[in-house]
Structure prediction request, 540 residues.
Amino acid sequence: MRRVAIVGTGLTKWGVRNATYKELVQEAGKDLFDDVPNLDKKHVDSLFVGSALVDRLAFQAYPAPLVAEQLGLTPSRMVMRTEMACVSGQSAIRVAWASIVAGLSDVAVVVGAEKMNTPNMAETQASMACVLDREWDGVNGLNAPPYFALIAQRHMHEYGTTEEQLAEVSVKNHDYAATNPYAHYPKRVSREKVLSSAKIAPPLKLLDCSGITDGAAAVLMTHEGLAKKYTDTPVFVEGLGQAQSGSLVVNLESLTTWHPLRRAAQEAFKMAGVTIRDMDLAETHDCFTISEIMEYEDLGLCEKGQGGQFVMDGQSRIGGTLPTNLRGGLLGCGHPLGATGVAQAIEIVRQFKAQVPEDRYVGGEWGLCHNLSGNANNHALMVLRRGG
Amino acid sequence: MGEPQEWHFAFDFYPLQSPEHTRIWPFFQHLKEGRLTTTRCAKCSSLLWQPRVVCPHCNADAMEWVDLPRHGRIYAFTAVYAGAPLGLEKDVPFVVAIVELDGVPVKVVARIDEARYEDLKIGDPVTLKIVELADGRVWFRFVPTGKPSSPA
Prediction:
């Protein structure tokens, strides 16, 4: 099986951007192509575009050819868009990986992009709410924040997790976002500020929630034989796992244990031949503070129900058991749906290449990316390894 | 009840309910009669939520309609204070919950009317309430059991 590497990265500034979907794509493309000066665009034979809601939020269907034109690419082998809501980005990487392994592609560009801010926030929220089953869940006003609030309430009810523990996730991730020039919210926040932030869907407050953010991210992927042409430090995709279960909120296996995460992690680590204990750093999907707490637990970093204590003890900070979300996570960077999974991988690559500020540099050899979508009924994980 | 619907189909959360649009139209007809119902597979007897036309367990396509309890208990709840979708902005804050129906292995997501977030706790009993939309469609919510508008 061909080994596949990420050999170049590109990011835009994330935030409420005065820029369209297509302009964000151009910016990410420029940053990527600047990063790989040896790339002749004619050699890019494949393009994978991860965008979740471009049809609704930018009123633009069929984005892949449009993205190709923005980037000056004419893919000759594989071109497609991947849509798995918040996992659209990692899905694009995953499909690019499979295409390269299969020999269908040799040099692939992956773009994750989302334009979330529209002139009408209620329209954006309605488009987000139809990620859930629109007719039976969304119709009741259920959307991401109230849904994850139900999870948080049950987790607090079953395990005694506290609002202070939830808040600490936001404090940590904003600490790391503070020196990330790409982040939507590059500013430290105190626990008191999180706890007193605006009520969204109790127990979740504004600073327990990731933002409505515009942004794009792009990577260049190729097989081992070509990797050194583009970089001295290829980062290899050594393991992947994905599991999905359930759609209606009431038909999920559990609110407070993410069984699909556990299954996907098992598959990814088995494929890579390592365990969570071998990871030097992780990017996990902190769409809400409760999410990161459950991820510690279901990744096996602590006992079930102890995720709150884990973050309070600093175990997910640099120097702890597993430094997590050093770019600032979704809480600090914002969450342009399709871009997030790609940006998570970029953080691992830039860590391995020491392209991040010193105060949040960990580097190392092994990194984990975890991306979830919908009502957490789909989880995708990637194990990355520094090459070179 | 009933609110004017000012948005287009692509922003309309409520299901289309008439026989020309959906094969589970009896569900909505039953709601109009004050009954919360679902389908049970006529072959393997699986109780299915939402109502289905094909059984996901045994692949049979013969279904029978069964009544669900009109009473249940709150399994989890929150209230939407901000960030409501188009069409619901005027309703904030409103309570949304997972309700465990009495005596059957079915939970449903529904709004809880006539209740403030602060007044509720997990396990509280709730009773079915039918909501009529301005265009003649219907939907279901719950209210805390014992509220004046809660039917016996």
